[in-house]
Amino acid sequence: MIELKPIKVLRAVSDLKSFSQAARALDLAPASVTRIINQLEQDLGTQLLVRTTRQVALTSAGATVLSRYRPLLEGFEEVTQDLQRSIRPDAGHLRLTAPVSLGIALLPQVIAGFQLAYPGISVEINFTDTLIDVIEENCDLAVRVSGPPNDKSTIWRKLCEVPRRAIAAAALFDRLPCPQHPDDLTTEVLMSYGGKGEPEMWSFSRAGTQRNIRAGKRVISNNGDFLYAMARRGEGICVLPDFITGDGLQSGAIIEVLPEWSIPSLWLTLFYPPYERLPPVVGTFADYFEAFIDDHPDLRATL
Amino acid sequence: MIELKPIKVLRAVSDLKSFSQAARALDLAPASVTRIINQLEQDLGTQLLVRTTRQVALTSAGATVLSRYRPLLEGFEEVTQDLQRSIRPDAGHLRLTAPVSLGIALLPQVIAGFQLAYPGISVEINFTDTLIDVIEENCDLAVRVSGPPNDKSTIWRKLCEVPRRAIAAAALFDRLPCPQHPDDLTTEVLMSYGGKGEPEMWSFSRAGTQRNIRAGKRVISNNGDFLYAMARRGEGICVLPDFITGDGLQSGAIIEVLPEWSIPSLWLTLFYPPYERLPPVVGTFADYFEAFIDDHPDLRATL
DNA sequence: GTTTATTATTGACAAAAACGGAATTATTAC
DNA sequence: GTAATAATTCCGTTTTTGTCAATAATAAAC
Predict the structure, then answer these.
(1) Mean pLDDT over residues B130-152, rounded?
(2) N or C: where does chain A have the smaller number of CB atoms within 10 Å of the terminal CB?
(3) Integer Cα distance of A78 and B72 in angstroms
C-alpha cells in the first residue's frame, strides 16, 4: 500500500522543483527525499521525476500520478486539520440514551441549557426504558434511574437521589382493605417496573425493621408512565419515583400506600461505556449535567 | 501527520466489530491492531473505539472520524489500483517534441500507426526547432535531427542517417559564378541553420580531402523550410536535409551545389531525459519508432 | 456458580525501516 | 579550468513495526 508521505514528498519536489528545498520544507534530510521518491517509483513501477543536479521535472507518469493523488492528499490534510480542530471539549456530537419518562420530564431543560452553553455540540437522544448494553446501544453516555448497573463493563456516576414510594388510587381501597403493613400487600395487585420478566423486589423499612416484598408479575412494564396510568385507574399498587407521581399525589388523584414505610431511593446515574480516557465532549456533558442538577434544587425536589 | 494505515485499521475494526478479525483481515498481529488504534486515538486526542473483550463499537468521535476519512481512503485505494493497472508499456501518456519540418513530414505516419497499435497511449507533440533542454521542455522523448546532443544529461538513440547537401536555386548562378570548390563559396550567400546565433560549420569532403567552411550569418534560421523557401527564391546557398529539398531537386526547382562533394549526414535521433529506468511507455514508443523506420526503407529514402 | 473459550492488552524481543550526516558524483556558473 | 550547488550513496544510529507469549477480562456453557 502506498502511504501519504511519499505522495506529499512527490508534491513538494514537483512544486518546488528541487529535492533539497522539498527536504527543507518538509523538515527531512535530502537523503530521505531521495530514498522516499525512489521507493515510490519502485512501488509504482515507473520513474516519476527526471532529475539532474540542477533540474527536476515530472515525467508523464509522474504528472499523472501526482494529479490523481493531489486532490485526495489535500482532502486528507483538510479533514485531518478539521478533526484535530473539532475534537475539543466544546464541539462535536453526543449520542445519549435516557429512560422515556424521566427523559421527557427532565432532559428538555438540561439539553436546552446545554446547547445554549455549548452551541458546537450536537446531541442525539435515544429514549429507551430497557437499556441492555451501553456499548451495543451505540451511545456515548446513558442517563439512567437505577441502582448499580448489571454489566460490569461500564463506569457510572451518581447524580442525585430519586425518591420513590408505593402508590395507588384511593378508589382501589374501596374494594380492598388498605394495607397497614408490607406483609398486607397482596401480590396480585402489585404492579412491577421491569424489563426482563422478573418482578421487582421492594424493600420497605421503618424504624430499623425491614421487609422485602416481591412485586406481582401480573403486570410488569418497562414504562413508569404506563404503570402510573394503571394505578390511577385503580388497577393496583406500584412503586414509582416521585417525578412521575408528584402531581397525582398533590392533586389527590392517587395516594401513598404505607406512608410510614420508606423505600430506598433510586439514583439518577450516568453510565459510560468503558472508556480508557473519557472523550472530551462526554466529559463536558456529564459535568454540565451534574452541575445542572446541583444548581436546581427545585428541580431535584420534583424527582 | 496521520497516515493511511491507521485509518484502514480503524475501518476494518469498525466494520468487523472485532480487533482480532480485523487483524486477520489485514494480515497483522492482534497486538499491532491494538497498538495502531491506540496510537491513532492518541494522535487525534480522543477515544475512537469502545471495547471489551466481547464487543467493539465506535464512539461518536470514532464515527465522525471514520465517516470523514472513509471516502478519502476509498478514493486513495481506487486511484492506487488504477495507477498500478495503468502504468504499463501499452497505456498512458507520452509527451514528445520534434522539429517542425521533419515532424510534419514524418510523424503523421508514425503516430497514426503507433496509435493504431497502441490505442491506450495518448500522445502530445510539441513542435519546436530549437530544443534547449529535454528536461525543461517537459517532455518524455525528443525526436531530433542532429549530431550528438550538447547537454550531457540526455541519452540518445540513433535511428537512421539523414543525408543532406548544399542547394541553391539555379537562378542564383545567373548573377554569381557557380562554385566548383568549397573554397569558392562566398560567405555572403551562405544561409545557415541554427538557433543560437552561431552559423554552422560545413564540412565538405571528396576523395580523402576535406574542407571546413563557416556558413554566413546574414541569414540564420532555426527552420529548414524557411531556408528552403529563401533558397528557392535565389537568396543564397544552404545545406539542408533531403527530406526538405527532395521534391525541389527532382522538379528542378533547385539544384545541388558542389554535387561531387559530400557533407556528413545528420542523424535522426531520439533523446531521452536522463532516466534511471526508461518509463515503459517511452520504451514502447522508441521501439515502435525504430522498427517503423527500419520497416519503411521507402520512407527512409526520402529523408 | 464454576469452568471454559474467546478476545483484547501488555511486555519483551527481533526485524525492518526510516533517518541523518558525511562523503561522492554530477552539473552549472564563473 | 575551478568553484559552487544539488542529488545521490553509504553507513551507523535511531525509531518504528512485527511477533510471540503471557495476562487479564468477559461472555457463554455446563
Answers:
(1) 71
(2) N
(3) 11
